[in-house]
Design brief:
377 residues; alpha/beta; Urease, subunit C, domain 1; TIM Barrel; seven-stranded mixed beta sheet; four-stranded parallel beta sheet; 13 helices; 15 strands; 23% strand; binds zinc ion
Length: 377
């Protein structure tokens, strides 16, 4: 039995259209998109007040950290947060960690998330992801200035479908192991990039990261690259799919450098809630839009976010047309994961899932405090 679904507006080809009926078959495949009037009282049409969108894509999450919800204070700043997470991580039992991940996964599905690019450090919650309705791509991240080998992570990735490895960032790995992590397979690479000034400053031996490393007696053998963006283009071959996360302190030059190097457009994943929680720094929306960069949205983890809601993240980005914002959370994320052929837009032949956004202001076309997303199918 197919279903015909309609709402006040529907996100079609990047635009919010009125009077649209979306017909899906019982395998969730979109079989027809029809324009007509009187959609709210047509026989056989389910009408929902609000905005109909395809299932969303969370392009940056750490589901395994869900147990740290509320454990770290807001406003610690970037280096403070990194230290705090290290000190609280060991205080929980496996059961608590698995339960928290399962709850966060179920909430994401109900709130309309179709796919997640998820960062992992161990295998504890892989079962949660493998049983989920959500399609996860897991990247085991290589992390630590004293880390020299990638084989443990490669072995974890081999034990699970839809998973591979990735370097954590350009400030947390020495030269050789960073390159090895990038070259180990041909899957997507996801790198935390320029979340704060500390990262760029490290390359000039200044700032809180540089001070922390000096106190720990850690030396960096990669500062000769000069900037994080230069390190990336000089370490990764140009035919890889690369996702960079945060980018708050990225300059137009950084964006252009990555853009000129990689054949597939780099996806910039914004995590406004996490940035607000940790440092109050804003995502680089204007720099990226000016450069025509590809943008996606991520929740980051519950250690640095009140919720994993993508709508809550979108609500925190000011003065961007709603259809553009919704595009970042849907097709933008699908492109980041390389899944744009099957999900991310309401198009005939795709199986993107359908989601209703309720509580948006349909006169000003803005998300409000009451706005939330709910899965229809
Ligand atoms: Zn992250």
């Amino acid at each position: 039995m197919s279903r015909k679904i309609a709402a006040h507006y529907a996100l079609i080809d990047g635009r919010l259209e009125r009077n649209t009926i979306v017909e899906v078959d019982d395998e969730r495949r979109i079989v027809r998109i029809e324009q007509c009037s009187d959609i709210d009282n047509r026989a056989g049409v389910e009408f929902y007040p609000g905005i109909l969108i395809p299932g969303m894509v969370n392009a940056h999450c750490h589901l395994e950290l869900s147990y740290l919800k509320g454990a770290i204070a807001e406003g610690t700043g970037f280096a403070g947060f990194a230290r705090a997470i290290g000190s609280v991580r060991g205080n929980y039992r496996d059961e608590e960690r698995i339960t928290a991940a399962a709850k966060a996964d179920a909430t994401m599905w109900e709130e309309g998330v179709e796919a997640v690019l998820d960062i992992a450090n161990d295998e504890l919650v892989m079962g949660v992801k493998e049983r989920s309705h959500i399609r996860y791509k897991s990247l085991f991240e290589i992390f630590g200035l004293t880390t020299t080998a990638i084989n443990k992570h490669l072995a974890m990735a081999e034990r699970h479908p839809h998973s591979s490895i990735t370097p954590h960032s350009t400030y947390s790995l020495q030269d050789q192991v960073f390159k090895e992590a990038c070259a180990a397979n041909d899957s997507v690479i996801s790198i935390h990039l320029l979340e704060s000034d500390d990262e760029g400053n490290l390359y000039n031996k200044r700032g809180s990261l540089a001070e922390w490393y000096a106190r720990m007696g850690w030396e960096c053998d990669f500062l000769h690259y000069g900037t994080p963006a230069r390190r990336i283009v000089e370490s990764i071959v140009n035919d890889r799919r690369v996702v960079v996360v945060h980018g708050c302190k990225a300059t137009a030059e950084d964006v252009a450098r990555l853009d000129n190097h990689f054949k597939t457009a780099v996806s910039w994943v914004l995590c406004p809630e996490s940035n607000r929680y940790i440092s109050g720094i804003k995502p680089p929306v204007e720099v990226l839009r000016k450069a025509g960069a590809q943008i996606a949205i991520g929740s980051d983890s519950l250690s640095s976010a009140r919720t994993l809601s993508l709508i809550d993240n979108l609500r925190q980005i000011d003065d961007i047309p709603l259809e553009e914002l919704l595009g970042w959370a849907t097709i933008g994320g699908a492109k980041a994961l390389g899944m744009e052929d099957t999900i991310g837009s309401i198009s005939v032949g795709k199986c993107p899932g359908l989601v209703i956004i309720e509580g948006a202001d349909l006169h000003t076309m803005r998300l409000t405090e009451e706005s939330h997303a709910r899965r229809l199918l």
